[in-house]
Amino acid sequence: MRILVTGGAGFIGSHTVDLLLSRGHTVRVLDALEPPVHAERRRPDYLPAEAEFILGDVRDRAAWERALAGVDAVFHLAAYQDYLPDFSKFFHVNVVSTALLYEVVVERRLPVQKIVVAASQAVYGEGKYRRADGSAVYPGQRPAEQLARHAWDLLDPETGAVLTPDVTDEAVVHPHNSYAMSKYTEEQIALNLGRRYGLPSVAMRYSIVQGARQSFRNAYSGALRIFAMQCLAGERPLIYEDGQQLRDYVYVGDVARANLLVLEDPRADYQAFNVGAGRAWTVLEFARIMAEAAGRPDLEPRLPGEYRFGDTRHITSDTRRLQALGWEPRGHPAQSAREYLDWAVRQPDFGNYTAAAREHMKQVGAVKA
């Protein structure tokens, strides 16, 4: 097949490109090489020469028209993800680009056989919890007043008791920040327009994807890159809240395999799938995993009591729907940490960008003390 990968010069996109090429597909990449993810508008060295490359923005109709010519399938992985309050950009990049994709395919009656879009675990907000009696509840986001008191846990609104986190399946979504809302809108465009016009479409709700090639220049979010920069600089990794937040860290190689699975399996059509490790680690555990991988187990994490406004407390994906198609996660955060460090230290402009990013987040109100 001839396959277009938007964002194919990025993190998840480039690993998907590698796997597609290894399976004998012909690959075209559409990428804007947008900073700060890419320092220069230059094709990255890790992108294979066999992949055709088009420099272009997914918000540009002409770029879509050029990139879609002659392709059989599309991975729409280009996205804007950050922890800054530039709300309109999330919708402009993630939503408008997806609408343009379907608009061009439908108007030009292009023979596209499958479209896979990058959704996100963020659409669940806090996800599923259990009350003391075992009943399920989907709480809203924690109030600003509660976070200001450093009261981190989710409480049952009826009894005031602490709720117990559960794994979250695909059934109930509850997006509560601009990124999550934009990604849920994106997948609704894909699944509904796809069904309406007979374009088999799939939404992949990635959890926290980790591995080599995750840009270190964007230090506003992403525990992998932030902890790596701090540990390699000899700094103790800084953790928000109390470090007991549960996170689902999935290996990028597992994500690429999941992408190809839904491309090839018609049972996946018109569905959304969780793509995660199926288990959780605390942020504190992961900071120690990174310190160990960096050869600095002495760097005990710092917990100054800061928090990111709008962050979720706990979230773990239930991946049984994807596993029913024959997929299973194989990676581990320690593997992701080692591979990321091996890649990062070979980059000529690698450095510790976390202090400046954190200060900017404080100035715009994304990080609070």
Description:
The protein is an alpha/beta fold. It has one domain (about 1-369): 3-Layer(aba) Sandwich (Rossmann fold). The protein contains 11 helices and 16 strands. The chain has a 7-stranded parallel beta sheet, sandwiched between helices. A 3-stranded antiparallel beta sheet has the order 7-6-8, with no helix packed on it. Strand 4 (about 75), helix 3 and strand 5 (about 115-120) form a beta-alpha-beta unit. The model has no long low-confidence stretch (mean pLDDT about 95).
Summary of the model, kept short:
By secondary structure, this protein is α/β, with parallel strands linked by helices. It has one domain: Rossmann fold (3-Layer(aba) Sandwich).
Report on the biggest sheet.
7 strands, parallel
Low-confidence stretches: none
Radius of gyration computed on alpha carbons: 20 Å
The CATH first-level class comes to: Alpha Beta
As laid out across the biggest beta sheet, the strand order is 3-2-1-4-5-9-13
- Fourth CATH level, the homologous superfamily: NAD(P)-binding Rossmann-like Domain
- What's the architecture in CATH terms? 3-Layer(aba) Sandwich
